[in-house]
Amino acid sequence: MYFPDLGLLIVEEEHRLGFNRKEKTRARYRGIDALFISATPIPRTFHLYDDFGKQSVVDLVLSGREIAVTEDNSVYVRLVTEVRMTKAIEKQIEAFKKGFYELIPYDDIRIYNELELELLMSGLPDIDMADLKANVEYTGYTAASPPITWFWRCNHNMDQEDLARLVMFVTGNSKVPLEGFETLPGMNGVQKFQIHYVSGNTVRLPLAQTCFNPMDLPEYRSAEIFFKLLHAVRECIVGFGFAFGGN
């Protein structure tokens, strides 16, 4: 849509346009007054103004303050995260590590990764399957649906370590609240363990959204395909992953 007699262009929440669309809009209506408005802080160039409470300029890359942030150089988010989560608090991290290693020597834990260390420190939880089954919520399924029946059958064949991985896969935490699954916490308070029906591809891996404790479970055609569930909870319990399916 084009307005040949347009005299004033006002765009609210300009960040929704993106840099490239914004520049195309400017070029299309060149010569008229344009006002771009946003209440949301927008990264303009590859630098930060704040350095852990001190007002200073921190270039994220060489001459970052001269490089515009666009849709094509999306490494900005990764660089900001790296600065804020590591470099900006490097002294604090080192102080924490020093105190931690005074209690637990580094040589005693160097062989463990972060997940193994968490399980060592928190203990391997005793997952009560009866408690979990009594406090699960279904969306699109019922307790009598074949995939749900196969799901519980698969879980009864798991050992405690794999059950802990299942809980971590769905909730982001291998531990169960003291009051049991009835008080399982989520982003919006208590949010029970959920199993959601997913249509379409029936050979894809299950998906989990750990902020809200749901697991998207495809309507598998047979119990044998449930080995994919074991694969998912063993391989995808840390960080972000993608679930692909094939024949």
UniProtKB/TrEMBL annotation:
Gene3D superfamilies: Hect, E3 ligase catalytic domain (3.30.2410.10), Hect, E3 ligase catalytic domains (3.90.1750.10). Pfam families: HECT. One of its GO terms (biological process) is ubiquitin-dependent protein catabolic process. SUPFAM superfamilies: Hect, E3 ligase catalytic domain, P-loop containing nucleoside triphosphate hydrolases. It catalyses: S-ubiquitinyl-[E2 ubiquitin-conjugating enzyme]-L-cysteine + [acceptor protein]-L-lysine = [E2 ubiquitin-conjugating enzyme]-L-cysteine + N(6)-ubiquitinyl-[acceptor protein]-L-lysine. It comes from the Eukaryota. Signal peptide: none annotated. InterPro entries: E3_ubiq-protein_ligase, HECT_dom, Hect_E3_ubiquitin_ligase, P-loop_NTPase. Its EC number is 2.3.2.26. The lineage of its organism: Eukaryota, Rhodophyta, Florideophyceae, Rhodymeniophycidae, Gigartinales. GO terms for cellular component: cytoplasm. It is an enzyme of class 2 (transferase). The active site is at 211 (glycyl thioester intermediate). One of its GO terms (molecular function) is ubiquitin protein ligase activity. Residues 53-243 form the HECT domain. Keywords: Transferase, Ubl conjugation pathway. Pathway: Protein modification; protein ubiquitination. This is HECT-type E3 ubiquitin transferase. It comes from Chondrus crispus.
